[in-house]
Amino acid sequence: MSTRDTGAEPGAFARRATAFGGRAAAYAEHRPDYPAAAVRWLLEPVAGAAEPGALHVLDLGAGTGKLGAGVLALGHRVTAVEPDARMLAELGRRVPGATALAGSAEDIPLPDGSVDAVVVGQAFHWFDQDRALPEIARVLRPGGALGALWNTDDDRVEWTAGLGRVAASLVSFVDWPQDRVIRAHPAYSPVEHADFAHRRRHTVDSLVATVATHSRVLLLEPAERERRLAAVRDYLRSRPETSGGAFDLEIVTRAQRCVRRT
Length: 262
Known about the structure:
Layout: H1 12-17, H2 24-30, H3 36-43, E1 56-60, H4 66-73, E2 77-82, H5 85-94, E3 99-102, E4 115-121, H6 129-139, E5 140-153, H7 158-166, E6 192-202, H8 204-211, H9 215-218, H10 222-238, E7 247-259
Parallel strand pairs: 1-2, 1-4, 2-3, 4-5
Antiparallel strand pairs: 5-7, 6-7
């Protein structure tokens, strides 16, 4: 893998990458979407390249369609490519407006120069960049945009930082510097960065369910997983910010974009 393996043993990173399919419905229900401002920012470099709503956007590593749904809401045409059949089936049920195709970032089932933009939600870190970046450049038209988003819990909020400590780094997946996720590559312009404020309404139960969809939690032995989730539940019930009913989880959506060189 081009991105370093952060697992505790060889192969752990690959197992994490394929852990989501068995919880596809829960992933779709509990994971946050993306702020419209962040989606617009990804597409800004090609916003004037076509009539309004006429962009052809590839949602790559599309999962259950969280990002593709946001692109569709802006009026664009979406092709969603996802390697896991169970995630792809959930995407088809929840985002019927997208064209859903089996495939991967390393083997995209689209012709050369066929899309105006490629967007990636919460998935770029799983790609083998040595293979994926040239393949993405192949399907992008010259001047097309490549953009990626990650939702991360805002640990500037004191109770959220405490939650991360209780969950022993299980709550938030991304554990390497964000500015190294999309590597420099001669096919693309320098990578730009932006952060966007976001939030998701939760209860104790729904936030515990969200934690349970993260890859590190999915790969735990059942007893250890239940122990970790019980600790999260106990923490949330102990905090005045989260124990009284519904509450907001503050999120920072981290964005990166670049443009395919002409």
